[in-house]
Amino acid sequence: MSHSYTLYTMSTCPFCRRVESFMKQHGIDLPRKDILTEPGARDELISIGGKGQVPCLVIDGKALYESADIIAYMGRNPL
Ligand SMILES: N[C@@H](CCC(=O)N[C@@H](CS)C(=O)NCC(=O)O)C(=O)O
């Protein structure tokens, strides 16, 4: 079954760099939204997950926060 993914990030966030670096190493490419530059993206993230913390991977409309948990998810699931 295929899932829908959006990764919310911001350019100044070192935790986002960790996730992006993992993605680059593993050839993972997902739709991304930068909450600093994309109008409405931060409010959208808050409405989905309840907070504006990044990185956040939204999986089928559910928010997964915490860079370590996002990386672990990506390691367990073929994306
Ligand atoms: N423990 C979290 C830390 C994430 C974090 O502190 N993100 C900061 C940016 S570097 C943030 O989103 N701060 C704003 C907020 O929490 O609303 C992780 O590893 O993902």
Give an account of the 3D structure.
Helices cover 39% and strands 20% of the residues. The chain has helices at residues 14-25, 41-49, 67-76; strands spanning 5-9, 32-34, 56-59, 62-65. By secondary structure, the protein is an alpha+beta fold. It starts with a strand and ends with a helix. Bound molecules: glutathione. Glutathione binds at residues 13-15, 51-55, 66-68.
Quick structural summary:
This protein has helices at 14-25, 41-49, 67-76, and strands at residues 5-9, 32-34, 56-59, 62-65.
Give the tags:
binds glutathione; single chain; 39% helix; 79 residues; globular; alpha+beta
N- to C-terminal distance: 11 Å
> What fraction strand?
15-25%
Mean pLDDT: 97
Instruction: Determine the structural class based on helices, strands and strand pairing.
Output: alpha+beta
How many strands, what sense, and barrel or not for the largest sheet? Answer: 4 strands, mixed
Q: What form results from the Cα inertia axes?
A: globular
Strand/helix succession? EHEHEEH
Number of strands: 4
Ligands present: glutathione
Low-confidence stretches: none
Global Rg? 12 Å
**Count of DSSP helices?**
3
The main sheet orders its strands as 2-1-3-4
Helix fraction? 25-40%
